[in-house]
Amino acid sequence: MVTVRPFHPEDEAEIVRMRKVAFGNESPDWGVQSATWWGVVAEDDAGLCGSLRAWDYHQFFGGVAVPMAGVASVTVDPHARGRGVGGALLVTSLARMREEGQVVSTLFAATPPLYRAYGWERVGALEHVTLPPAAFGWVAKPAEPTPLRHAGAADLTGIHQLYLDIASTVDGMLDRTGPLFDTAKLLTLDTVNVVDGDGGPRGFYSTNRRPRTDTLDVHDLVARDADAGRAMLAALASWSGQVDRIQLRRCDPLVWDLLLSLPGHHTTTVEPIMLRIVDLAAAVAARGWPVGLPDFAVDLDVTDEHAPWNAGRHRLVFESGKAHVEPGGSGAVRVTARGLAAWYAGAVTVGDLRRAGLLDGDAPLLDLASRAPRRLSIADSY
Q1: Mean pLDDT across the chain
Q2: How far is Cα 211 from Cα 217, in angstroms, rounded to an integer?
Q3: Strand 296-303 and strand 149-150: pairing?
Q4: Is 133 domain-assigned?
Q5: Are 152 and 67 in the same domain?
Q6: pLDDT beyond 90 at 28
Q7: Residue 197 lies in a domain
Q8: Same domain for 229 and 335?
Q9: CATH at residue 21
Q10: Contact 66/104 with Cβ under 8 angstroms?
Q11: Does the residue 266 lie in any domain?
Q12: Residue 25 phi, psi dihedral angles, 5° rounding
């Protein structure tokens, strides 16, 4: 018999062992629980056999940072696999997420079928592109001189504000606030450079040279305007002759989609991210919705056996630019937990959800609300 209970500090040694078996690393940081995460463990007759940790994040949807549980470190000991341990951890965690006010949940899935079975669906990705340094120089020169300088502690508030200004326009990005994100740690990286502007930075980028390799990692490159972006990309091109390759993490759509010139053959690393709606009513109320959205309502009949508080008939109401969920309605549009996640993220259209068997009924205005189809983008892993 498998039981699930909250994590206790004395569980750390066994969790470290299971993580080493599962992932090849120990990550011995489970010993002290804090406000930044909570965990649960599974036990069978032989002792501890599984673990899960959930980080406390806020993720942008429609320009609003929505409380999110970032699921990580889901581990099942080899002897206990195939016995429902992973599912038991997830079901117990959903109830805990709701108690914590974490209205949605995302994760990077090593085993997507497991998470789909419990209501998570693929909605976007963390992406990196790897290019030779010279490729970063394939941009037009700034219209006027755009000098860069090394960032200091006095720049950290402005750097974070610039990140927020851009990240809030990209669904899926984290707001990087709270104790998990100490902005001072940014300055421990090898290089943090800024482009100055009126009242704060116009752009910044941060890099680390990988030890004993010919690779430079660019963690963030964010620009308020095109000239700032061009100046920073040109600075990366100056690494020619010192490194063979530069890996850039997707963060700013201006830089990635409109300034960076990708050759016909290049390497992109994609880490898919999956989303689940933990509390439907709270998730709908928490996020932002498109400006100019017409007033309308859709009667839902939700199937969600693992989060039964979401199940049943609900009326999804859009009114005066906001949305809420109220009980009742005809249930004309039937939708699964996976379908809800994909719709909320705008990852696919209602028509695609219908073809996949995740939704049944006609509600074309739902695509207008979620701005489907598009994919979430995230610039942090956990």
Answers
A1: 95
A2: 11
A3: unpaired
A4: no
A5: no
A6: no
A7: yes
A8: no
A9: 3.40.630.30
A10: yes
A11: no
A12: -140, 155
Residue with tokens 């609003």: 64
User: What per-residue string of b and e applies to 190-221 under the rule 16 or more CB within 10 Å gives b?
Assistant: eebbbbbeeeebbbbbbbebeeeeeebbbbbb
Residue 26, pLDDT score: 65
Per the structure, the count of domains in the chain is: 3
Q: What is the pLDDT of residues 246-286, one digit of tens each?
A: 999 999 999 999 999 999 899 999 999 999 999 999 999 99
Which domain covers residue 91, as residue numbers? Answer: 3-102
Q: Give tens-digit pLDDT for 233-244.
A: 999 999 999 999
338 part of a folded domain = yes
pLDDT tens per residue across span 86-127: 999 999 999 999 999 999 999 999 999 999 999 999 999 999
**In this structure, are 251 and 315 located in the same domain?**
no
Structure-token pair, residue 171: 């669904």
| 283 shares a domain with 175 | no
DSSP state letters, 163-182: HHHHHTTSTT-B---STT--
Residue 308 CA to residue 95 CA, distance in Å, equals 10
- Beta carbons of 151 and 193 less than 8 angstroms apart: yes
Report phi then psi at 247, rounded to 5: -105, 120
3-state DSSP assignment of residue 97: helix
pLDDT category at 62 given cuts 50, 70, 90 is very high
| Average pLDDT for 288-294 | 95
Give CB contacts under 8 A, 24+ apart, made by 366-373.
Answer: 366/298, 368/290, 368/293, 368/294, 369/289, 369/290, 369/293, 369/318, 369/323, 370/343, 370/344, 370/345, 370/346, 371/290, 371/346, 372/343, 372/346, 372/347, 372/348, 373/346, 373/347, 373/348, 373/349
Do residues 33 and 64 share a domain?
yes
